[in-house]
Design goal:
Oligomer: single chain
Strand content: 5-15%
Distance between the termini: 49 Å
CATH class: Alpha Beta
Structural class: alpha/beta
Bound molecules: NADP nicotinamide-adenine-dinucleotide phosphate
Largest sheet: 8 strands, mixed
CATH topology: Rossmann fold
Length: 338
């Protein structure tokens, strides 16, 4: 009882990663949302652990360059005999055209990619559409853009594994908050495409949407993993727990006040939360297709239900159709057809 109360209030400790964990050996990692919060901390930890090339994918170049300078000035990184090469790329995950041109630039300019860490996400308290597409913005940023980037960059992760003789990693940052998703109580009717439902202002539930998008991430990862050999590319999602970042800064004022109080008691320092991301991009095949919660596999029970499995299939089909529409040939190139 006392233990339940304790774990309800406080989070479990995330032990330090083994000192021996290293990304040495000419590896390249790409991180989205690399200029803030968990993405920034994970980028630093990859650099400290001797990644060779770090691609900071950011919305604003200036912020990316500032992060690059901070990483290179870090005492551990500065003391390395070989400093990482840090490249800054711009991408706005809210704009499909930006995602498409970013993916094309990476494919054209980056010869190998060992780690793809799709970390960026957002939370707001209103219905807003992507400036280009009619997609609801959290659905666009947290789910659609991550799925599209996974499809586009999977061939590069595969070819890198072949040329390096070591498996690659694709991790999407999810959240255990997905257990509060709305699909359990209010399934999307079969008569309506999932994308159309989620983009319908009248169906939008503000306090459910973040959890819904993170559920979609888990569904996508589960389905994607079926098409990918884990000894070539390990695919997973990861939840870092509650972490002191600015993710809630764009929420309504009263939510920010409430969350700040909860964060003060419960949230982890960002460097501690970022360990879980580093663990995910170094994980073995046991977590393939799964979401990690801290260092362990964590399951959303809804995904095991018939309703969840059916929705996962529908989501997969709609997602691949969009990927194909946005980049013809990409689905076949990623070998994602049955
Ligand atoms: N913090 C937590 O308690 C917690 C818990 C569970 C899961 N997570 C997950 O952890 C991941 C990182 O979140 P965080 O807490 O580190 O949040 P954060 O501090 O708000 O950082 C989010 C990052 O995503 C970027 N981003 C947001 N919208 C973007 C867009 N349209 N295009 C490109 N980049 C965009 C931000 O860029 P700008 O700086 O340009 O805005 C920022 O770099 C997210 O997937 C989040 O859902 C966080």
């Amino acid at each position: 009882m006392a233990q339940d109360l304790w774990s309800g209030i406080f989070q479990a400790k995330v032990p330090p990663l083994p000192e021996s964990l290293s990304f040495v050996g000419g590896k390249t990692a790409l991180i989205t949302g690399a200029n803030a919060g968990l993405g920034r901390a994970a980028s630093l930890q990859l650099a400290q652990r001797q990644i060779s090339t770090l691609i900071l994918a950011v919305r604003t170049r200036k912020n990316g360059e500032a992060t690059k300078a901070d990483i290179l000035a870090d005492p551990i990184v500065a003391a390395l005999s070989t400093k990482p090469t840090i490249l800054v790329y711009e991408v706005d995950l809210g704009r499909p055209s930006s995602v498409a041109s970013f993916a094309s630039s990476i494919l054209a300019e980056i010869p190998t990619l060992n780690i793809l860490l799709l970390n960026a996400a957002m939370v707001i308290s209103t219905f807003k559409q992507s400036p280009e597409a009619e997609n609801e913005i959290m659905f666009q940023v947290n789910y659609i853009s991550n799925a599209i980037l996974s499809v586009r960059l999977l061939p590069l992760l595969r070819s890198t594994a072949e040329s390096c003789g070591q498996k690659s990693h694709l991790s999407i940052v999810g959240s255990r908050a997905q257990k509060h998703n709305d699909f359990i109580e209010h399934p999307i009717p079969d008569s309506m495409p999932i994308f159309a439902f989620l983009n319908d202002r009248k169906k939008f539930k503000v306090y459910k949407r973040y959890a819904d998008t993170k559920t979609l991430v888990s569904m996508f990862v589960r389905e994607l993993a079926k098409y990918v050999d884990p000894s070539v590319v390990t695919v997973n999602a990861v939840c870092p727990g509650m972490v002191k970042t600015t993710i809630n800064d764009k929420q309504a004022a009263w939510i920010r006040v409430f969350i700040a109080a909860v964060f003060a008691v419960r949230a982890r320092p960002v460097a501690v939360g970022a360990r879980t991301l580093i663990n995910a991009v170094a994980a073995g095949p046991e977590g393939h297709g799964q979401q990690m919660g801290d260092y362990q596999i964590w399951a959303n029970k809804f995904l095991e239900t018939e309703q969840g499995k059916k929705m996962q299939k529908r989501l997969w089909e709609e997602t691949l159709a969009l990927a194909e529409k946005e980049a013809p040939g990409s689905v076949q190139e990623a070998k994602l057809q049955a």
